[in-house]
Amino acid sequence: MITRRDFGRAAAVYTMAQGAPLPATTGDGLRFGFIGIGIRGMFLLEEFQKLGVQPVIAADVYEGHLTRAKEVTGGKIQTTRDYRRVIDNKDLDVIVIATPDHWHKQMALDALSAGKHVYLEKPMAWSIEQNIEIVKAVEKSKKLLQTGSGGGSSALSLKAREIVKSGALGKVNMVRMANHRNTPEGAWVYAVPPDASPQTIDWDRFIGPSPKKAFDPNVFFRWRCWWEYSGGVATDLFVHMLTQLHSVMDAPAPKSVVSQGGVYRWKDGRTVPDVLNSVYEYPGEFVADLYVNLGNSSGTRGMVIMGSEGTLELTMRGMTQYEEPKSSDVQRYATNSWPEKMRKEFYLSKGFTEEGRPRVAPVRAAKPKEISVERGTSHQAQFLLAVREGKPILEDHWRGHAAAGAAHLANQAYRAGRRMGWDWRSGKTQEG
Q1: How far is 291 from 393, CA to CA, in rounded Å?
Q2: What is the pLDDT, as a whole number, of residue 325?
Q3: What value does the CA radius of gyration of the chain take, rounded to a whole number of Å?
């Protein structure tokens, strides 16, 4: 069970995450297997290879992905359509899972049961209940599992956490986070390879535990658009925000959420919304307003933390801190209806002139302060340090569950049209 003390361990990782990028020898001696080497899986294959790990075997159900894996490893990696061959390889230290969400649970359970450390792409699983199954399996196995959001372990997030904990923003009462994009690729309308067919794609293996469905290459390459395989914008994009939010605010998980949205832009048969706005309530008396808009590219992307004494804004460009304006207790607007003598006495009692003007120049708020943050150690490199040296990781199985579970909770609220609450440690949810 995760506790506030567990979140306090972030201080132990701070120096590591803030430090310079690690050398390419970080992963020397570690043998990796990969399950799912599509868009995200291919990035991870290349990233871990740069850090010195040995890619041994990769599984995918599309032949084109397997061919590309051979290309980026110089032909050294073994390839297969059957993920069990990766699980059963006794020479592996780590298995990386980057498949569609509906396969995460079974593959993670199999990898842990085989005694392997696991790097599991976000979201942790297809549902809250499946998250809990994985959490229990990790605790039983004594192996490491890191989820792949990375938002909470970035140098920018850890610096923001330091500022919030210093009290410089006063009492934080609201956090707003957003992600806008307005392109087919941004809305998961990914290009379909011209050779996509039942011969090049093992459709039955892709479908796996989901309801049977006739072959459809659009579904295969754009699976995030359907509830059967994904949680849509919440589990793809909210998860990044929630991971960062929980780290920065030292908040394990939300208490409840309400959601609104719909399919407003991409009328392509998808069932998940392309616009979603969810408002979470957190312990510690603050709310977090998260939204994704796949039909507009001009809105803000980033995080705004609002407190009684200041505001901290995190964007792709960096971090800016704003101080709240200083206000006096002389209320000219509220006292305008008072009798003149009473009003003048009130002004004088506050140290102002009879007309309500300050006797000394008011203190102005400080100018916005740009805060520079050096590039830190990558999320993947932090995982290697955890495996090789026992370093703590910021995004372990409990944190992965908290972020993915909160995203699933937003979807439940959206689909039910009701406020949803939960006991995040047990995963049990309830309306109201």
Answers
A1: 27
A2: 87
A3: 25
Predicted structure pTM score: 0.92
Question: What single letter denotes the amino acid at residue 98?
Answer: A
Q: List the domains of the chain with CATH numbers.
A: 1-155+190-264+377-432 (3.40.50.720)
In contact, 399 and 388? CB cutoff 8 Å: no
Contacts 24+ apart (CB under 8 A), 419-426: 419/256, 419/257, 419/258, 420/256, 420/257, 420/258, 421/255, 421/256, 422/128, 422/255, 422/256, 424/252, 424/253, 424/254, 425/1, 425/2, 426/132
Residue 402 near residue 253 (C-beta atoms within 8 A): yes
CA distance 347 to 359: 11
Q: What pLDDT does 22 receive?
A: 55
Write out residues in the chain with pLDDT < 70, as ranges.
1-25
Q: Which two tokens stand for residue 376?
A: 């830190």
